[in-house]
């Protein structure tokens, strides 16, 4: 039976209200940006009092923000210890790439959003990233590489898949921050981005999807190998479920 009282009350709420982010979402957005940018590294303790003093929100709001970040796997709650920036494990890395192997090649091969305009945007992204490599701008190279993959998935025209991909890319940034120096990691893949795009420009979507599958498989092994060589994988495994205590209260 319809709830007429509720329906009548909701009718008077302006349409734009539902689109406004809540206080908890605003806090989560601020923390997420710092995590993705590397200002808050894996194992950093997130404390209600410090965040409340800095941002001016209540503890309840901050707890809600923590819940959002935990759901996104960007933070983890430790019993009797608190909330910490998540520390991805090798299994997390493999799972991220398993997700990407399903989403990205399917978008390349089957997405309905291909057009000359879309290919032009991809070409601009690829060319800008390669120009950044020539200038030695490692941050722009990493950003350009990530934007290429984001834009491939956007060809699918699905807000749900775009949202999923944003979460995956945020977690990937957390993984890259585990490396002592990831400045050279992305550079070899820029030419492979160009090769995939050239397949798409020729209309060979199946060839581009196959190339992307191989690319992602190689990148996964490359990343795990580099983290292992740097001792980061061991540190990751050792901190799994037990983040460090860095960060002020």
Q: Main sheet: which strands, in order across?
A: 1-3-2
Q: Measured on Cα atoms, how large is the radius of gyration? A: 21 Å
- State the low-pLDDT regions, or none: 234-249
Number of strands: 3
Helix content: 55-70%
Average pLDDT number: 86
Please give the count of helices: 11
Structural class by SSE content? mainly alpha
Q: Calculate the terminal CA-CA distance, rounded to whole Å.
A: 50 Å
Strand composition percent: under 5%
What characteristics describe this protein?
249 residues, mainly alpha, globular, disordered C terminus
Describe this structure in words.
- The protein is mostly helical and 249 residues long.
- It has a 3-stranded antiparallel beta sheet with strand order 1-3-2.
- The chain is 67% helix and 4% strand.
- α2 packs across α8, α5 runs antiparallel to α8 and α5 runs antiparallel to α10.
Task: Tell me the layout of helices and strands.
Layout: H1 4-11, H2 23-37, E1 45-46, H3 48-55, H4 59-71, E2 75-78, E3 82-85, H5 90-110, H6 116-135, H7 138-154, H8 159-176, H9 187-201, H10 205-229, H11 232-239
Antiparallel strand pairs: 1-3, 2-3
Summarize the structure.
By secondary structure, the protein is mainly α. It has helices spanning about 5-10, 25-35, 50-55, 60-70, 90-110, 115-135, 140-155, 160-175, 185-200, 205-230, 230-240; strands at about 45, 75-80, 80-85. β2 and β3 (about 80-85) form a beta hairpin.
């Amino acid at each position: 039976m319809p709830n007429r009282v509720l329906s009548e009350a909701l009718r008077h709420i302006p349409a734009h209200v539902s689109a406004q982010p809540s206080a908890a979402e605003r806090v989560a957005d601020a923390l997420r940006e710092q995590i993705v940018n590397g200002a808050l590294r894996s194992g950093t303790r997130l404390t209600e009092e410090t965040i409340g003093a800095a941002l001016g929100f209540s503890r309840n709001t901050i707890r809600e923000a923590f819940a959002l970040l935990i759901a996104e796997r960007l933070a983890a709650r430790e019993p009797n210890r608190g909330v910490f920036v998540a520390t991805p494990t090798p299994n997390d890395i493999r799972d991220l790439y398993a997700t990407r192997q399903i989403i990205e090649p399917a978008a390349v091969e089957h997405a309905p959003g291909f057009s000359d305009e879309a290919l032009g945007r991809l070409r601009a992204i690829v060319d800008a990233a390669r120009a950044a490599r020539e200038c030695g701008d490692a941050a722009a190279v990493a950003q350009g590489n990530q934007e290429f993959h984001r834009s491939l998935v956007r060809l699918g025209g699905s807000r749900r898949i775009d949202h999923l991909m944003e979460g995956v890319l945020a977690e990937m940034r957390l993984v890259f921050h585990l490396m002592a120096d990831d400045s050279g990691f992305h550079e070899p893949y820029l030419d492979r981005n160009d090769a995939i795009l050239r397949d798409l420009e020729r209309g060979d979507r199946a060839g581009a999807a196959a190339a992307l599958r191989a690319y992602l498989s190689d990148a996964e092994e490359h990343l795990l190998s580099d983290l292992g060589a740097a001792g980061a994988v061991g540190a990751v495994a050792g901190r799994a479920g037990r983040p460090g205590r860095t960060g002020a209260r």
